[in-house]
Amino acid sequence: MEQKKFDPNSLLGFLFMGLILMWMFYNQSEKTKLEQEQKAIEQIKADSIQKVNGVTTKVIDTTIVADATIEESQIVVQASDSLNLLQAQSKLGAFAYSSSLAAATENTTSIENDLLKIVVSNKGGQIQEILLKEHQTYDHKPLYLVKDQNANLQIDFSTKDNRVLSTRDMYFEPTLTQTEGYSVLSMRLKVDENRFLEYRYSLKPSDYLIDFDIRSQGLQNVIDGSKPINLQWDMTTFHTEKSVKYENQYTTLEYRVEGDEFNNLSPAAESKKKDLNDVDWIAFRQQFFTSILNANTPIEKMEVLSENLVKDDEKDTIFTKHFAATIPLSTNDGELNYNWNYYFGPSDYNILETYEGRNFERSINMGWGIFRWINKYFVIYVFNALKGNIASFGLIIILLTIVVRLIMSPLVYKSYLSSAKMKVLRPEMEEINKKLPGKDNAMKRQQETMALQRKAGVSMLSGCIPALLQMPVFFALFRFFPSWFDLRQKGFLWADDLSAYDNVLDLPFNIPIYGSHVSLFPLLASIAIFFYMQMSQSQQANMQPPAQEGMPDMQKMMKIMLYISPVMMLFFFNQYGSGLSLYYFISNVLTLTIMWVIKTWVIDEKKVHAMVEKKKAQAPKKKSAFRQKIDTAMKQAQQQQEIQKKGKKK
């Protein structure tokens, strides 16, 4: 029998036939898939037409027959809308209805008065822009507190069907009502026409305060009140002033808690988070502008955050700090109902004070304790009185300085009189030093010196106390000038803005701490303080007892400070507001003048000498209990010193 041989042509034929069969099978499956997809699309088209036109539709193959004629492009749009609605229902549940409305776009609605323009977006129902109409940035651009998504307001919540939603992702329907200058904007996130979550913004004429209400209607079976409902409010503050470093020092998160406790998150901290309880209001405060959320009833608890965004204050920047607040909300009978206020405007003490009962003016840091008291009841009163009659704010600062120095002049006189008395006693104190030399006699020498001063009616404290009493005024004004809004963008002489540094020369390099510019007012203030310290050194030298062996020489230390203090003043104040430097310059010049007048025309050294001698001749007064304790302690120390001295000799 003949053996069959392997035929390669047959193998190739079988392979070719297999490929053809596979191609036919794949082509048929793709065709079937396309037909199924086409039928699904046609069915959606038919359903859309029926919904929109209220007519009966019918699918025959791929042809739609209807009693009403509809353009094919309209059918495609409705089909796309239906698909979007199905996707929205899958994601948003009951709130998908809001996505089917005409308002489901990123359109905006504006409300405004003569001070504010507020733009609210349909998406999220939140404020998109806040323009302060009467103010500009340091470089004369429109001043926005909110713009380009630097702020956010949203409510995060859970639904009864276990969805976690955020209002920022959903669309609100706006309704604007305006009556005689009053504007009320209702933003509703709808479940249907009768059920919704509403933000209501109400703006009055000529007012920076906005009523902000949050309420829900018919959502008790939609929102799950047993799970957290949090309002998130955050803002990244714009750089609006000339000096980033100076501005950032006064940009902080302030708050008031129930019981009139006021505090802030440290503006120097890189990042600071804190839990608060029973909060009346919180303020995202810039140096001269502020955004305040005020609650008509205290907020039980909230978490606040402050983050510093300025990494290099020598470089220009857009933002200074980021502030955030997380506020838990609660339902009442399944509904939300909160009546709050927003203040968007200048940190102007006189404006903030008009909102009685809210204490918004405390968001401005005027110092604590006695410093704030001095500013509130004296400095602000005098400044406003002068402002009512004088247009130049530089001249107002000068007159305010004159008033302060005249009030302080009796203290200067008292200090100088004590210096003159000590000068009369100085020869006798030197005699005591000669009579009791050496370290071993230090305690006894001190006792006799104090006895001499007491007999003559002279005290070291009588010269120190007047100087100390002037310090609260110094620190109060140090807080007043950087925070006082009236000085912003008001010029005087070469300074175009008394709230910012007055650079008369820009340097091509940066000096650490000092900066890259030369300010003239701090330079003048430093020169004035040099001459003031030079004149006062002779006065202070008279008040110091002669240098004793083993004790530091205070006069040498004072000579060193004569040169260090003006340099420190120059470096420290170079980037501070020129209004503050102007005050210190005028204050030092006036103090020099007052000291010269007292020395030349008021105090007669011969009369002072006669006064001291008369006092010495009088019978000594009975020692107070405090003085007796001091003398007893000194005697005990002296006795201990003598015992130790005898022990060493043995």
Short description:
With 650 residues, the protein is an alpha+beta fold. The chain is 44% helix and 26% strand.
CATH classification class of the largest domain: Mainly Beta
Write down the Rg: 40 Å
Indicate the low-confidence ranges by residue numbers: 1-6, 48-79
In DSSP terms (H or I, runs of 4 or more residues), the helix count works out at 13
Could you estimate the helical fraction of the residues in percent? 40-55%
Terminal CA distance reads 145 Å
Q: What is the beta-strand fraction?
A: 25-35%
Number of domains as seen in the coordinates: 2
CATH architecture of the largest domain: Distorted Sandwich
* CATH-assigned fold name of the largest domain: Beta-galactosidase, Chain A, domain 5
Class computed from helices, strands and strand pairing: alpha+beta
Average residue pLDDT: 79
Shape: elongated
- Please summarize the sheet with the most strands: 13 strands, antiparallel
- How many strands appear in the DSSP assignment? 21
Topology:
Blueprint (H helix, E strand, L loop, with lengths): L7 H46 L3 E4 L2 E4 L5 H21 L15 E5 L3 E6 L5 E10 L5 E5 L4 E8 L5 E3 L6 E7 L2 E11 L2 E9 L5 E9 L11 E10 L5 H6 L2 E6 L3 E5 L5 E15 L3 E20 L10 E11 L7 E10 L2 H4 L17 H18 L5 H43 L6 H15 L4 H23 L19 E9 L3 E5 H24 L10 H20 L4 H25 L2 H13 L7 H25 L1
Antiparallel strand pairs: 1-2, 3-4, 4-5, 5-6, 7-8, 7-13, 9-10, 10-11, 11-12, 12-19, 13-18, 14-15, 14-16, 16-17, 17-18, 17-19, 20-21
